[in-house]
Here is the input.
Amino acid sequence: MAFDFKIMRSLIYVDLAKEEYRPKMMNWLYRHHIPDSISNFGPYCTKYAFYQAFPTPPQGDRFGARKMQLTEHYWLVDEHLPEMVHRAMNEFMPMDVLRWQGSIPDTDDPANQENAASGDAGRAAGGGEYPPFVFAFVPINWEEDYKGSGRTVEDGPNYRWQFLIQYPDGVSVEEGERWFQEEVVPYFTNCPYVNRFLSSKVTKNYGAPTAQYHRVVELWYEGEEEWFKSAVEGTKKLNKPSWAEQEEFPYLKSNHHIVSIFTGDMATMDAYSQYHGYITMR
Here is the structure.
């Protein structure tokens, strides 16, 4: 066996089909998924954190806002190598989990109670009319720093908008990148409401086959109102590309070719240091 030492960061955007399913998702995540995950990748993953999603801002749905959380890992090796295929214990991931996230039809089919063939099989769900499961690997540090490099915690808390973009079918990466660099970057760099602007190219996508994201972007604001002025009102001046999939910015198919998460600065749960089991209120 040969393992490549390759530090990477991964991003999973967890959605909710509807608020009815939030307690079910939390139960599965904290009762089953955290201990399953730590048991499996504890020896080769250095960070495992959850960031609770803020409420979806006005018109945030057209940006593919995911409503549950961002899950972030920092990896020492790629666990998708052939050498990692055999596991002593399969993780508990009922198909209902994918239903609660909106990646498969929302029905009472008994098959939804079955365990996915593997966690990776579950994470390959979605596509077509259903939002794909997002599991993107990116460089451990940001590749491009466009604005706000001197910012510190003393400058105040941040409303963080992180999103992944995938250029539409038929649009080359070169053409998509030209649009990003020539239209998106200058606008947000010069926007007075933006305090921080960072981006990297996606290294590898391990989610649904249709979720082949090209780039991750993060923009920081004072709050939701500044985000709206910047991302909704201000972008009306941008030139719409010929391949636009919706009439207004971001011009990409919501929840498919753009997915977003809105969070704060701090992780809601640092699973390695803070998880102590599924302890309920009395």
